[in-house]
Amino acid sequence: MFDLEYNSARSTLIIPEYGRHIQKLVNHCIALEEKEERNKMAKAIIQVMGNLQPHLRDVPDFKHKLWDQLHIMADFNLDVDSPYETPSKEELTEKPAKLDYPKSASKYRFYGTNIQTMIDVALTWEDGDKKEALVFTVANHMKKCYLNWNKDTVDDAVIFEHLYELSDGKIDLRGVEESLVESKSLLRKRNTQGQKGKTNNNKGHKSRKR
Residues 82, 155: one domain? Predict the structure, then answer.
C-alpha cells in the first residue's frame, strides 16, 4: 500500500510556478554536506529553472533573477558560490518607500499632466497666429478633460479662468467673447485660407514660368 500525499499536508511552495519537484531539489541541495556538490547541483537547478521560464530570457539580468529566486526558495539558507551577490531576507521583506504625489500636479488633476506641459510649451512661443491656435487648442482639450471628469456642461469662462491660473496669469482669455467652438471654427477657417493662399501663389509661379 502506498501512502497518498495530500496538498493540505505538504509545505507551502515559496515560488509556486516552479512546482514542488524544483522545491525538493532545492531542499536536497541545502542538505548536501560538501560545498562542491552544492555548487554543482545549484548550477543544474538554475538550468532547469531557466528551461521552465523561457519567457524570462529576454529580461535583462536573466541569470541574476534565477539565482535570486533560487536563494528565495532556499529561504536564504543555501551556502553556494553564486556568481551574483546573495540577496538578504531583509531586502525582500523591506517595505518600499512611499511615493509622494508629483509636486507639479495642480488642484485641477482632472486635466492631467500633459495639459500643463502643453501650456508650458505655449508660453515659450512668440505671439502670433500659431501661438493663438495652440492656446485655443489647449483650451479645447481642457474642456474635453473637464467634461470627461464632470459629465455636466461647463461654461467656457470656467475653462479660461483655469487656463489663466495654470499659466500663472500669462495666458488670459477671460475677456474673449467668442466661445471655444467659435474659436475652433475660426482657426480652422484661417488655416484653410492660408492653405488656399499658398496654393494660389504656387499657381501664379507656375503661370509665370510658362
Answer: no
